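Rotation project, supervised by the postdoc (A.L.). Task for the rotation student: set up a whole-complex structure prediction and record inputs and outputs verbatim in this book. Inputs entered:
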Amino acid sequence: MIDSREGYARMRTLQVVVLLIFGVIILRLAYIQLFDSRYEELARGNTLRQVVQYPPRGEIFDRNGEYLAQNRPCYDLMVLYRELPQAGFDTVRLLDMLGISRTKLDRALRNARSNPRIPQIVTNFLSSETKLRLDESNLPGFYTVYRTIRRYPRKIGGNLLGDVGEINDAQLKLSRYAGYRTGDYIGQSGVERSYEEVLRGKKGVKIIERDAHGVVKGSYMDGMFDSLPEPGKYIVTTIDARLQTFAEELMRGKVGAAVAIEPATGEILMMVSSPTFDPDDMVGRDRGNNYMKMLYNKRRPMFNRAVSAKYPPGSTFKLVQGLIGLQEGVLSPSTAYSCHGGFRYGRRIMKCHEHASPLDLRDAVANSCNAYFCHVLRSIVENPKYEDVEHGFDVWKSYVNRLGFGRKLGSDFLDEGAGYVPGSEFYDDAYHGSWNALTVISLSIGQGELGCTPLQMANLAAILANRGYYYIPHIVKRIEGADSIDRRFYERQYTGIDTRHFEPIVEGMWRGVNVAGTSTMARLDGWDVCGKTGTAQNPHGRDHSTFLSFAPKDNPRIAISVYVENGGFGATIALPIASLLEEYYLTDTITRPWLLDRVKQMQIHYPAYAK
Amino acid sequence: MQSRIKEGLFQGVDFLTVLYYLLLVAAGCICITAASYDEESASFFAFSHFYIKQYLWVGAVLIVALIVLLLDVRFYHMWAYPLYIAGIAVMVGVLIAGKEVNGAKSWIELGSFRIQPVEFVKIATALALARVMSNYSFSINRAGDLLRVGFIIGLPMLLTILQNDTGSGVVLGAFLFVLYREGLNKWLCIPILLIAALFIVSFLLTPMTLLILLILICTLSEAMMNGKWRSRIIYLAALALASTLLCALMALIAPNTMNIYRCLLVVTLLSLPLIAIYAYRTRLMNIFLMILLFVGSMAFVPATDYIFQSVLKEHQQKRILSFLGIVNDPRDIDYNVNQSKIAIGSGGFSGKGFLQGTQIKYNFVPEKHTDFIFCTVGEEWGFIGAVFVLGIMCLLLLRLMKMGERQEEPFGRVYCYSVAAILLFHILVNVGMTVGLVPVMGIPLPFMSYGGSSLLAFTILLFIAIRLDASTRQFPSN
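Outputs recorded:
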């Protein structure tokens, strides 16, 4: 027996123990229920499943309202690890339904396991039929999400329109893609990339209440917090689908680019970079394989040569020299230089082909006399007005820049290249300050260090067509719901060359086509085509063939530049292509089937891209 | 004593206790309704629902409570031992031929419902304990009496652990609470608690550390009891020296056979007979208890790996490992506790309201109407409701202790304290596990969890105490 005083003390101790135990429990409850807000969120995450509703991507039309890119429905299969039955599920049947490999499923499940609360994609591009079969088998933990992928009814404009793909890890880290999540689609190149913001639309979300087995109990709060997806806005491009199709047909098998611009607006009517690809190849399950195939293709089909390649412009650049010479006053339309098989400087000679001599400016353009433009460049650079060659050269360079070369034009292609025009510093470096006009004389005929994009060359054609100004070339004509496109596309860009100086150059181009010269094959009766061939020497084999043209001479409707790598003389291949395109665009007919055959059948050997 | 019918059935009954009881049962019914209510079911009153069954059980149990109040006090005195023996026999029977539910072979199946005999054995144990401790000559700090008490508590404990029902086994440990009240030397209570704690964390410790801690706990507690510090410290030093010497010697004779841990173990075990002789000669009987405690723990603690692997079921191992933070896999092991914490945490201050608890309604919390019933309280009634329920429980416990204090006979006091102790441990372990304070052990929340057998057992347990108290108050002694 215990005496009662001792017993009383112990009773007190035990009371304290009881109160302490309850105190601890209540403190813990207070912590969980009142101070730690985490649990509330977790509870919401438990019952609520946020199903993303993907918006259809905006469609892309050509200038006449034809579809270039449409959407078709497909389904993604998602898995939520937390909702998977613990007993496991019939993987064989699932794999059979989906038609994917075991390893792919395992990989998805492994990913899902590491974030049990976050839905992970198992596979995408499921057909509606597969989706129905999945719904029937009602696998807990798996659900499908509706989304759309691209289809291209005309199968044109692969590297022009660009491709749409899942956003990658590097892109996710960029601030401009802040709103994106893993699994979202994003324009990876071309128009799709440039106009991503317009095309993407806005994702919606549907909040669904479910139980622990993932069984849907209905929409949360009667859809109060749901949002509908906003479809992406469509865009109308400046592309003429029929011209584009025809151009791609003509460029098939050749490496190069062709760009056509409407001079009065700067709208790009056609832009082909060859080789291109079928845009449908970059959609759906085969995307990965096709992508790798293209990545390893030495001709680089995904490289948009039309805006990014740096080509020597060849003789087409003589037009630039003529314009600068006239503007600088070192040349007049009647200036004549004689040419005896070339331009001699020191012991060297810049060769020229057989033609009448001496020639004035108009005929020099028409006949593409090398010697003439060597003289022109020399007189520009060594103009006594400027203290030294460097200054003369920099004046020349600033004109060239204003004509759109050696800098980005500011088009709506994000991958637009700047090309390259050397400055006097370049030669100061290269020749330790001792150089003169003769050192750089190959620039006069568009050789040497020059690099131009086909877009810049087409833009030069547009400048010539407009007699002195251009509109920044662009691909988008109209965006749904927007009053206008970017302001910069409406502003005339002046080149610093007076309109009157264009007359003799244009006249020379006209003569070259319609009277006598290098471009006579480009003649289209009644359309007053003006053109200039170019033949650019290069280290990769045969000369590059290029042609720059616009038509008609007055009120021109199309300015075009065609560049075919290793195509030989300008008149060999680039000119026929350009001429056929002009004819097709202006008259909607082909009157020279033999020329078409010749273009299509021409085989070009590309040592640089040999496998 | 006269017939209770004549005196009035409710004379002397502590109505406050009954009120607390009824409040808890009502709260339990509401929670079970919320937890098992299925929106999609056609009718509210279909017999298949858990809550309808529970309502019927409550009705039946209240009648049983009346019967308990009706019985004469002497009945409980008289039947304490027979009930205990019968209970033990049933436990053994269950161990041999019981039904296994959730890994614990501790159930009897009678037709459509199942009974867990340990629920009733707790009552019998409490009665038997009360009976033993109310013997006139009983003195808790006498080794013989203490052994008897230890036997009465230890036997059902052992049987429940063998049945794989660790939770109930732990609850039986609650009787320490009673023993303390009855004057058990606190230097025996403290080492028992320490060793229990040691057992829980033993997976974190090396056997060497465990052994040293065990020796220290036992020796120092003994020193606190008997107060002969110098010799105890010499003893500890001798142990250390002897084991080091033995280790060095063995390294010379037979290298790699004895590490320091084994040496210490051997030396300690060899010293035990010497201590026993010392204890006998100095008449310090509590030293025997310490030796017993040490040997018992030695059988337990250094062998914990074995126990851990073979006695604890896999899910229990995982629960303990998860509780100790050794493994953390929310989907797998921690799932129950996490979901339960989420449910309770999401209740906030005032709760989501009756039938509005999404975690409960949509089955995120497992066992939501039985072991995890407190989640419903937490989620639907919020902090306010949880504190209310816990408050009533706490008041009930304090009331029971007060009832115990006012008993004239040790029998009543021991019994009331036993009830308080059992309820306290149930509440601590059950609520503790739902809020993540205690590892998950499958024991019900008294008066609230779904289940007829558990409600019946707790009701009988409580009402016997009320009945004992009533008779005291009926005939106040002078």
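Student's summary: Chain B has 20 helices and three strands.
Supervisor addendum: Residues 54 and 450 of chain B are 7 Å apart (CA to CA).
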